[in-house]
## 1
Amino acid sequence: MTQHPLKPRRSALYMPGSNARALEKAKSLDVDCVIFDLEDAVTPDQKPAARQAIIDALTGGGYGDRELIIRSNGLDTPYIDEDLKAVVAARPHAVLLPKVNTPGDLQRLAHKLAVLNAPTDLAIWAMMETPQAILNAPAIAACGRDPEVRLSCLVLGTNDIAKETRAALNPGRAVMLPWLMTCVAAARAGGIDILDGVFNAFQDGEGFAAECAQGAEMGMDGKTLIHPKQIEACHAAFSPSEEEVAWARRINDLFDLPENADKGAIQVDGKMVERLHADMGLRVIAIADAIAARA
Ligand code: COA
Ligand code: MG
């Protein structure tokens, strides 16, 4: 269970900070999170204008209850200090740091933000996209329990993982599964959320739906997206279905019956159901309620 108030993070749409049309369009798109990019989607000469466009967009408002995240450049780039000044001026909910290698990187970021007097409720999100990040995943995700760092979400960077490790990023992602699942376990141990990587072929609806289903099955909280076309299928995969919610309510109601008060396990439709399943159901209900409240 995440420590922060439960927020659906089914979809997180990246957009280049330099793309004014996209920044405007995001105000009307049905996404849970918007990631305004200053890193790879913005060329070096466009970075200053992108920072200003993001500040203007965020301070101008109009994004409703979407969670707003700015992705900065990496800590060891010449852009980071100007990026963080822009973050403080724009006041997003979180800053997403790319190329994280160690928990020390997140502590360095938190320190830089403190020096800039960033608001104390500004969260940090971490890209998991280097071999070091995967090998250090438990220690990085443990920053979710460090009030000085306020790490709230891991974001998989599968394109960079493929580049840095030379492992293939193929349909089904078979060779990457151990790394992806390690990050899921690390996120849960740290009490934080985790979002799956992007699917590049945004015209391939079938392939995308399959990868969304896989991410949901893996326990991801949602998926990062690159195109508005991907939102609907993403929400279909990461929202609890009506059947799941009905089942969750039913087993909780059964455990609430006086005759089951002293039982740890009961039989429902020929299946063993334990109180842990009822607890899992409470989370499903809470997410469904939070989604309904957003709609
Ligand atoms: N966010 C918001 N709106 C987007 C968008 C995005 N990521 N991607 C496309 N759109 C909008 C376009 O502005 C266009 O809007 P309009 O028709 O109202 O003018 C509409 O969706 C259709 O766009 P389309 O023509 O299909 O795509 P494109 O060729 O303009 O752009 C990409 C394709 C891949 C360049 C673009 O989707 C993109 O920049 N994605 C994000 C890239 C990114 O941030 N990468 C970093 C992290 S991996
Ligand atoms: Mg990357």
## 2
Amino acid sequence: ADLYGVNQWSGGYFQVAENGDATVLPRPGATDRAVSIAEVAEGIRARGFDMPVLLRIDNILDAQIESLNETCRTAMEELGYKGRFMGAYPIKVNQQQQVVEKIAEFGARYHHGLEAGSKAELIAAMGSMRDRNAVLICNGYKDEEFIDLGLYATKLGFTCILVVELPDELPLILERSKQLDAKPVLGIRIKLSTQAGGHWADSGGERSFFGLNTTQIIDAVDLLKGAGMLDCLKMVHYHLGSQISNIREIRTAVNEACRVYAGLAREGAAVEYLDLGGGLAVDYDGTQSNFLSSRNYTLKEYCTDIFEAVMTSLDEEGIPHPTIITESGRALVAYSSVLLFNVLDVTRFQAATLPATLPEGSPSSLEYMFQALKGLNIRNMQEVLNDVIFYRDETRRLFDNGKVTLRQRSLCEQIFWTTLNEIQNLSLELKHPGPESGELERVLADIYYCNFSVFQSLPDAWAIDQLFPVMPIHRLNEEPKRRGILADITCDCDGQIDQFIDKRGTRRVLPLHEVKPYEEYLIGVFLVGAYQETLGDLHNLLGDTNVVSIRILDKGAYEFVSEQEGDTVSDVLAYVQYDPKRLFNSFRQSAERAVREGRIAPQERRKIVAAYEAGLRGYTYFER
Ligand code: PLP
């Protein structure tokens, strides 16, 4: 059985092999080229990299770019759409050089371009882009330097579109164009009244920060007309928000944008591009619904709907079909990275064997709990549960008043956990859920301490409760007998994952295997390629993880394409303005003082100082 719902969230890229390993495929359906992720993890270890590791699979990026472009092409053919489709990858979604370069490489055959939302991103994009037939979209607040860079790109022959996001930008762009003697290619970001639901959707709607309302659009047209530059206005752009789960909102927005596009065409603007922004969602939980972590449409539906909506609106107005641009980011990159980490320890909420009788002098609250446990049967579970909770609280109160000893309180906790476990076991015999079954499962869940930081590697899981698929990457042919939640190695109570994907929705505990002594138990968090890497922070000074990229070749062979070491302790200290050299010297002096005071021998000083130095050079995570 597909206990972890792999078939529902994998997008066809992940499977479980007969030997119980999770496997990755270079493209959906290419089962003969499946590669065991556990085997890759072993290879990573053998090359001297510790967990956690972010594993990137290059083929998936390639396949996703192909799938978006080909699905759009087919939709256009089927509908008789007369314009073109051009993608522009928004580099904010994953700015890592390797990722952006790969997208430029794999996207070349479709002239898939880039989108920059800041000066730094534009500089990254200009350095990564070669294809002058692709578009380079400049969004975001623009100062003079940003505008100049965009205009230089135009001079070099790139189709660099400066998107006016705020009314005040336009006069500055016109002035800089004159100064630099460059004819700008302009877009206007419009504010739509369509607003989408979901966490990321504040970019749309009339109260969105960016974009021009209709009055401001008309002002911009008049300004351009006055300057004799209305022919520079080539694009209409909007962005409704990311992860738009509901296709109806996407369609409504396209329709509204088309009306603005048509209006601008009538005003005499030389519009030829319609940029729909991002928003193409990823079905993280596989529910195919309009839940936050899902989407109620397929890629095929998305493409068909947008072209159809454009055709319907513009044909009515007799306006030629524009080149459609989308700035899909999440959907392109989410599948291509998997976070891998090892389990360091497990805590179980299960008592040791209880004594046959209670020790002499035990408080009566303890006696009552013990009796309740002894009398537990399938018919009185709720009553016993109520009793043990009541008397446990009573015993804790007595402890606070000094009437119960530490040993007695410990025994109380043990009776309590034993009772809960027994109720849980008895509940398995029932046809219907037992007393407080969900809650009981949650409080009895083991805690698996795992070598990663939620804040660094899965910030959206912490910040907005986004669901990511999580499962062990091996032993998947063994029944997982335990139920657990995952705690990371930050010492923060928010540093945990306690919401998981279930075939029927979400669940609070994850089925897990018992960790065997001396055997590594590895867990993977899937679909983490979008947004997580750069949104992550340095909580507890846990830095960037190691990153390894592979490329799957024929018949399941694969090669390690690149390895990037994660942050060292010294790196993360430098981020927060420490000078590691000064720290080292100061520590050396403390060690010397200890020698002077006769606490340690000089030889020992050497060892201690070397350990400190190795610590500075080492990985910020738990090392084996
Ligand atoms: N374009 C703009 C202007 C954005 O702000 C964003 C991100 O929210 C995107 C594109 C990418 O959106 P998505 O990752 O949903 O495709």
